[in-house]
Amino acid sequence: MSVVRLIVSAGLRDLSRSRWLIGYALGFFALAEGLFWFGGSGPQVVLSLLNIVLMVVPLVALVFGAIHVYASREFVELLLAQPVPRKPLFTGLWLGLALPLACAFALGAGLPFVFNGGGGAGFAALATLAAAGIVLSFIFAGIATWIAWSTDDRLRGVGLALGVWLAATVLYDGAILAATAAFGDYPLERPLLGAMILNPVDLARLVVLSQLDASALMGYTGALFNKALGTVGGAAVAGAALLAWSGVPYLMSARRFARRDF
Amino acid sequence: MIRVENLRKRYGSHDALRGVTLEFRNGAVTALVGPNASGKTTLIKSLLGLVRPDAGTVIMKGAPVDAAGRYRRAIGYMPQLARFPENLTVADVIALVASVRAGEGGESPRDDELIEAFHLVREMDRLVRTLSGGTRQKVSAAIAFLFSPEVLILDEPTAGLDPLAAAILKDKIRSVRAEGRTVLITSHVSAELEGLADDVAFLCDGEIGFTGTFDSLLRQVGENRFEGAIASLFRSKGRVA
Known about the structure:
The complex is a heterodimer.
Chain A: H1 3-16, H2 19-37, H3 42-80, H4 86-115, H5 123-150, H6 154-182, H7 189-197, H8 200-209, H9 219-229, H10 231-259
Helix pairs in contact in A: 1-4, 2-3, 2-4, 3-4, 3-5, 3-6, 3-8, 4-5, 4-10, 5-6, 5-8, 5-10, 7-9, 8-10, 9-10
Chain B: E1 2-11, E2 14-24, E3 29-33, H1 40-48, E4 55-60, E5 63-64, E6 75-78, H2 90-102, H3 113-117, H4 133-145, E7 151-155, H5 163-178, E8 182-186, H6 190-193, E9 199-204, E10 207-213, H7 214-221, H8 226-236
Parallel strand pairs in B: 3-8, 3-9, 6-7, 7-8
Antiparallel strand pairs in B: 1-2, 1-4, 4-5, 9-10
Helix pairs in contact in B: 7-8
C-alpha cells in the first residue's frame, strides 16, 4: 500500500474515533433533524443549514485542523525519521485530516435528508449544499495545515486560524459594504468580482443559492456575479473557483512542509 | 558508521551548530551531552534529515546521505516525546510505522524483544489516549528497535520509564552494541550513561567541547565519575549545570 493510502487510512481510523468529530457530526445531524422536526420543508432546511454551514464548517476545519496538526507534530517527526519522502507523507496527512472532517459534515447534515426523503428539496440543491460543505472542509483544513506548519507557536497558530475565519465570514462582508459605501461613485463591479473570487465562503454561498429560489440572499457580490455572468454562468464560474481554491492551500502547505525544519 | 563533517545550522541570529565534525563508531554507544540549547537536538535531527543543515555533510557507510532519505532505512529513532495519534490503538501505531517503513519491497519487523519485555502485547488493543506516559515511552522504544536497525538514535530514552523498564532498555542497548551496531544517546541524567556509554561527545554553544572515549574523558578532567566529569566540562565552558 502506498504511503499516502497508509497515512490516510490511519487518519480516518484515528479521527473517526475522535469525540470532537463525532460531536461535530451529531451537531449537524441534530440541527438538520430539528429543522425538519419543526416543520421546515426541504428547501427551507437547505437554506437554514447553508447559513450555518458557511459559518461552522470553516470554523471547525480551521480550529480543529490547526489543533490536530499541532498535536501530531511529534508523530509526524517520527514518520519523517523513516525512509519515506516528505511529499506523499504530507498528502496523506492532509487527506487524513480533511476527509474525516468532510465525512463528518456530510453524514451529519445528510442523513436527516435521507430519513425525511429529501423533504421536497431538489437533488441539485442538496448535492450542491453537500459539495459546498465538503469543499469548504478541504479548503479550510488546508489553510489550517498551512498555518500550523508555518507557525511554531501553537497559541499564535490557533489565533491566526480564528483570524482567518473571522476575516472570511464576518470582516469580508463588512469590508465589501464599506468599499461600496466609500467608493459608490466609482465603477466597482470588476474589483468586487475579484474580491468574491478571493473568498471561498462567498463563492460557496453563491453556488448553493443559485440552486434555490433565493437570489435576494446572495448579497451584493453575488448579485453582481449573476449580473455579469448570468445565473448559470455565475454558478459555474463560482464552482470552478471554489474547486481551484481547494488546491491552493494544499499546494501552499505542501511547499511549506517540504522545506521546513522539524 | 556515521560521520558528520563541518555541520552548520543557523536559526535567525542563533548559531545552533558551528562546524561540528564528529564520528560515531560501530559497536559503540556514544553519549551526546551538553547544556540546554547546546545543539544536541539539532545535530540529531540533522542526522535524520528532519533539519536541513546550512553547510556540512552527513556521511553513512562512506557516502553522503541522499536527500530522498533512503538511508533512514538503517536508522531506528526514539524521539524525546512519545506522542502518537490519540485514537489509534498501540497495534495500529506499530503497524502504521512498520508499513510506512517497509514501503515497496522493504523489510518486515524482526525484533519484537522489547514488545515482549515491556509486556506490550497485552496493551495492543488499547487506545493511545488511555496509555500512561511511561507506556507510550515503551511503545516508542519498541518501535525504534523493531527493524533491527544498524544505527539507533535515542533521545532521552529512559525519561518517564520506571526503573525496571529503564534497566530492560539499557540491557537492550548493550546487546545491540555487542552486535556491532551504532548507538547514539542523549540524556540529561549523567548517571544513566555511566556504564553504558563508550564514547562521549560534549556539545556546547553549537561546538564540540570534547570528543573521545569515556575513559579518556575521566582522565582528562581528573574525575572518577561520569557525572563529575560532565560537571567539569560544563564549568570549563562557563556553564552552571
